[in-house]
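Notes on consecutive records. When two proteins share a document, each keeps its own sequence and its own token line. Never mix them. Below: protein one.
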Amino acid sequence: MGWQKTFTLSKRAKGCHLVTEEVASQIQAGLLGVEVGMLFLFIQHTSAALTVNENFDKDVRKDMDMALDTIVPESLDWRHTDEGPDDSVSHTKASLVGTSISIPITNGQLNLGTWQGIYLTEFRHVAHTRRVVATIL
């Protein structure tokens, strides 16, 4: 039997943001009684993404943002800029990082590694809230 909930992450501007605790608080009800399962998180946006990475050193988040800016620079001759100069660059970065992640559940807890956390990678300069669909199987 599955469990699903759509929730909204707090408003954040461009950058890589650790959201593990915010996600965990939203899915507590779905974790109850799950001995072995999977959490699937899907972000319902084309200019932000989800990933799992280092959760301890804040410099990792800054480095990731810098690396993505280097790989996909805003300075390219983007054609789709209807919502501003960060429009197509945000869509491209979101495709590279991805719209979904999966995390094992063991004994009602997310089974992340010692130094792992859930990141929202926000690619828009202006702060946005983001909708996430959590599915537990």
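Protein two starts on the next line and is unrelated to protein one.
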Amino acid sequence: MAALSSVNGLFLRVAFLLTISFFCFKNVNSILENSYVVILTHSMNLPMLAMSPYSGQLGIFGVLFLMLAFSDLLPLLESNHKYFHSIVPARLTVYFILTSLSYLWTSNLYLHNNAVFLFCFNEVWLNFVIYGSIREERNEEFKRSNQFANNAENFQEDLEDEEAEEEVPLTTVQEIEQLQDDNEQ
């Protein structure tokens, strides 16, 4: 059994995106200057990004993170599982590639910085947890649906076996009439 169900993992991702959106509007440096982020940045030899709290780009990033959160929240509230069966593996692949690029492509400082790496790394982790949960839930659903089919097959085989054991010899009409005549005499 997975540690989180897919629904709880998706709610965790929505909360993560809403938190980032809030801090983009409030003070993004509270995330970028966090001691855990600084330690991760130095240990991975990534350049540290510092942003002005009055930067105009933070507003558009806040809106984009808010829209990413709502793009998961609405299908989640509608229980649209097919959407998540298709989007989570694609998202996991894209964020894994972006995480790799943000670490390895040292000449491009637009991608090679702590903010991009941290966001993409968290997305890979969250989407991996969600993907594992979705996969396990699909396997359980498959087992449940096949369990009833297997039970029906076994029941049918048991009925056929019982019928074969209780074979009643077939008699013709003439034999029945002869038995009736014998009983009358």
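For the record: Helices lie at 6-26, 29-32, 35-43, 57-77, 81-104, 114-165, 173-184.
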